[in-house]
Batch of 3 targets.
Target 1
Amino acid sequence: MKILLLGSGGYRPNDRRHTACVMLPEVGLVLDAGSAFYRVSDHVHSNELHVLLSHAHLDHVMGLTYLFDLMARHPGLTVYVHGEPDKLATVERHLWHPGLFPVRPPCVLVPFSDPSLTQLPGEPRVFPLRHLGGSVGFRFQFPAGSFAYVTDTMAETDASYVEQIRGVDLLIHECYFRDDQSSLARLTGHSCASSVAAVAREAQVGRLVLVHFNPLETDDDPVGLAEMRRIFPATIVGADLMSLEL
């Protein structure tokens, strides 16, 4: 099972990272629709695409305005956008407001409460995260293994989501701030490096892949990887277009 990190940055794009978008091409799943969503069209292999939104902040939904390009390259494709009802309403009313985007993109909005969610590949499990305005994470179980996607939250070993990700083979987790920026992390509802590593260790995951970095950090090591590996050795820095095997 291939997992593509189409966008590994947070808040805004920079010259090396677009914002949040993870794709499982073999099963037609996309997690979040940030600025990297334009890359999805290169990896479509079916007549249906299911986009699961963690929340509705712009760096996670702006790519939904790129759907016309996707449809132009893949005529007949049906896109379903899944999310919490209030987040879907935010997208409908604000992102697609005629004053901002004059023509509504062609897709179907589906709340997480719809029974069809459990019928999607990997039988996604949705769990709440602590973040300003609210966010959710996802856990999937495939024959090849399990993985979880956690973005836009404050990593803490006693957070309720730790039990939701326990024992997954692969954890993709946000890591916006370095350890010396903990006050900013609390202010904005994001995670510091060592706390993310501690969560991975506490949850006994197999591998940890870091995403959603501060766009002001533009080098190969945006968070202090050596220190994180002292806490959880099986940690790597995610990058745009990185391919992971589950």
Target 2
Amino acid sequence: MFTGLVEEKGALAGRRRTGEGAVLELRTSLGPLELGESISVDGACLTVTKTTANGFEADVSSETLARTTLGELREGAPVNLERSLALGDRLGGHLVSGHVDGTCTLAARAPLGDAVTMTFEYEPRLAKFIAEKGSVAVNGVSLTVNAATAETFDVTIIPHTRDVTSLGALEVGGKANLEVDLIARYLARLVSASSPEAPPAQAGSSDAAWLERLERSGFT
């Protein structure tokens, strides 16, 4: 489990294919790292399989390569790194599992004082999990959704986040890993499972329809 507060901006030092999967070599000053511990790499939870003088290596499955941007990153590209949350640590962001739901694409960015507003396009199937003032993790960074439609959401990046994460260098048209809010995901599943006669809510469903289903299921 992670919080979405990036500890360090590392770099992809190398990648080698292993059948349908791959091994990533990450350069970082985080440490000391232990074999078997979990590290969020651009939002994807990976296991340390080998420690090196300059960082660590991690195996990446074909599922992770298909779901995330890790198979497309160029050598030397910056990556956001976060070690797993220890019991008793401050939860400064939100609960992030490191299980990426898909990718999103930066559609626009604009200055907002010293900050930057970023608009991302995402897969419509995830619309029911993204809400205004809710949380998302983009490349492992915990962010608050300022506005949301069935196809896009807006977030604001403060100067600190811009400087210490890879989001500052993300260009329009660039892809990022997206994880929706963990609670929203399970709430939607519970509502769907408790109402087998009702079809799953589609992208763009009205708030009234969702509230009615929540009430029927005993959540409100």
Target 3
Amino acid sequence: MFNKKTIEDIEVGNKRVLVRVDYNVPLDNEMNVTDDTRIRLSLPTIKYLLGKNSKVILMSHLGRPEGIAEDRFRLDPAAKRLMELLGIRVKKFNEVYSEEIKDYINNEMHYGEIVMLENLRFDPGEKENDVKFSKSLASLADVYVNDAFGAAHRAHASVEGITGYLPAVAGYLMRKEVEVLNSLLESPERPFLTILGGSKVSDKIKVIKNLLGKVDSLVIGGGMSYTFLKAQGYEIGKSICEDDQIDFAREMILLAEKNNIKLVLPVDIVVSREFDSEADKKLVSIQSIPIDWMGMDIGERSIELFRNEILAAKTIFWNGPVGVFEWDRFANGTKNIAGFVAESPAITVAGGGDTLAALKKYKVTSKFTHVSSGGGAAMELLEGKELPGVASLLDA
């Protein structure tokens, strides 16, 4: 359920519409966009506004320039790619805000055209949620649209501050992201399985706590699984482990048992002597991890164990690889999990940068029901947090 107003609930025709998009896209050394997914995801909202004859004013951040202008963080590559996708001109400014930009929008820009402001983070007022900066941005438009789910967890000027000075509504991507992720928490088709991987338990403490009241099964793989295995008394050798989270892991194991939730951990591990793409490796059970070796991937029995959980599920959320998938030598677990989830008839949702990179690597992105564009925002929403970029929009 989405209880905020969207672009369809407000008059945008012949209006100046300021749209917060998420064009924080990867660039190569020649300053070309190497993955335009986030730009493509903004197209439905932009096309709707163009169809309503709006003046479309786009703003985004890119990278971490820390309040100063750096050429490597300019949005020109994103503007160029957007022009290629839309087939129309996008006028890109080299400043975030100026009276000249305001004058151009008011007097020279035609309705049905697009302009793009420079990287918001070139101005320190963005991250500081500065009132003056928020008001300056707001002065450019009649309506504000937030379609940057990936930034919705940031209480920044272009995300939250600006909503105090303009009618503020959601774009299509924002609505879809919140609806899909909220449905996992509120009304998942059961059995509901969550697969959590990645390296750190500490990154996912609140998510684990919240989901243990929602899921039927929780599969834990990747680097974070070794903290849980150590909490159960296993020798984990030189595997990555957060010793300060062992008590939390024990607490979650007991909570899962109390709530009758199936908690699934690896039963065999591919280990290596060194953290190296060409290091020696061998397959061992979790009872037999050598003291001077480290876990790098899940083994064949674990893959089959995880597969059985995936086959039984009707809703699946996946965040985090289950091994060092960047190196093919240790990618078998993540590759298999990606394939199993992609082929499942269940509702399948994925989130997180490394997870999305794995889906892209194995060419299964299109087979998922939904792939979230915002790793941090998605995880905070699943923690049960209220996102500033959503909370500040007009109520429906």
